């Protein structure tokens, strides 16, 4: 069984105890991390290797940043950065070969405040992802695109959908772009396993401590190429991590392959 997870850590150094505890308790085979918020040279590679994982990463001081971890082996880097905009300086995409699987880890722009320049950038980035995704499906049959998409695909993916009508993660244009990826052939693994269940990967921080359970959203996704669908056996979210001490505002989503 191969187990793959994606986790927006919201600062890999500040949340390192959470990350290491989670890795130790779960032992996923492949892990995609987003929002590292650290430069390349300050990525905690020694601590991650001591936890049993090889790693590649694409950092950026204070913002963004993505990484791919593999238990017991070194991921083989295939690409960093999406094609289509040579002037884009954001660290939002990295891709590796891990035991024959092509794994893309992404941190899609949030887009707020919307409408505005940040939302325009989000849609341009999303279109680049859609274009590259078509190429990936054509050239690499066993492929995944995992990460924080900053998109809530539909009402079932929000605990209180009306709260998010003015937010870029729920704008029709964001949802339409995500639907376009699925129309290409990409498969939303968590939704495929749980077609009618409200499942969330993000909750707002609460000013009173803890988190606001009514703010639940599902916007961390694992998209599979059709070739992998028959091997998909299970999927879910490690929601308990959201209640740990000094947690991320996201919880890890995961899948299991035969």
From TrEMBL:
* Gene3D superfamilies linked: Endonuclease/exonuclease/phosphatase
Q: Which UniProt keywords apply?
A: Hydrolase, Magnesium, Metal-binding
Indicate whether Nucleus appears among the record's keywords.
no
Which InterPro entries does this one have? AP_endonuc_1 (IPR004808), Endo/exonu/phosph_ase_sf (IPR036691), Endo/exonuclease/phosphatase (IPR005135), ExoIII-like (IPR037493)
The domain of life for this entry's organism is Bacteria
Please list which residues make up the signal peptide: none
Q: What is the lineage of its organism?
A: Bacteria, Pseudomonadati, Pseudomonadota, Alphaproteobacteria, Hyphomicrobiales
Required cofactor(s): Mg(2+)
Could you identify this protein by its name?
A: Exodeoxyribonuclease III
Matching PANTHER family: EXODEOXYRIBONUCLEASE III
Q: What family does the Swiss-Prot or TrEMBL record give for this protein?
A: Belongs to the DNA repair enzymes AP/ExoA family.
| Designated gene of the protein | xth
Query: Which Pfam families does UniProt cross-reference here?
Result: Exo_endo_phos
């Amino acid at each position: 069984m191969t187990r793959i997870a994606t986790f927006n850590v919201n600062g890999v150094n500040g949340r390192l105890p959470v990350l290491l505890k989670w890795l130790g308790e779960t032992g996923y085979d492949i892990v995609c991390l987003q929002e590292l918020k650290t430069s390349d040279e300050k990525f905690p590679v020694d601590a991650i290797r001591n936890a049993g994982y090889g790693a590649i990463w694409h950092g950026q001081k204070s913002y963004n940043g993505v990484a791919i971890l593999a238990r017991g082996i070194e991921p083989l880097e295939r690409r960093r950065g999406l094609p289509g905009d040579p002037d884009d300086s954001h660290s939002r995409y990295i891709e590796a070969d891990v035991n024959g699987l092509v794994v893309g880890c992404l941190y899609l722009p949030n887009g707020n405040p919307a409408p505005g320049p940040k939302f325009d950038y989000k849609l341009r980035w999303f279109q680049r992802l859609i274009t590259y995704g078509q190429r990936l499906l054509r050239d690499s049959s066993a492929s995944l695109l995992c990460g924080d998409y900053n998109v809530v695909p539909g009402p079932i993916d929000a605990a209180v959908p009306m709260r998010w009508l003015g937010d870029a993660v729920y704008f029709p244009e964001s949802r339409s772009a995500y639907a376009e990826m699925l129309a290409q052939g990409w498969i939303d693994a968590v939704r495929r396993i749980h077609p009618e269940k409200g499942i969330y990967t993000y909750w707002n921080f609460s000013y009173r401590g803890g988190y606001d359970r009514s703010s639940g959203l599902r916007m961390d996704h694992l998209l599979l190429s059709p070739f992998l669908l028959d091997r998909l056996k299970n999927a879910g979210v490690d929601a308990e991590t959201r209640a740990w001490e000094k947690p991320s505002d996201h919880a890890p989503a995961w899948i299991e392959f035969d």
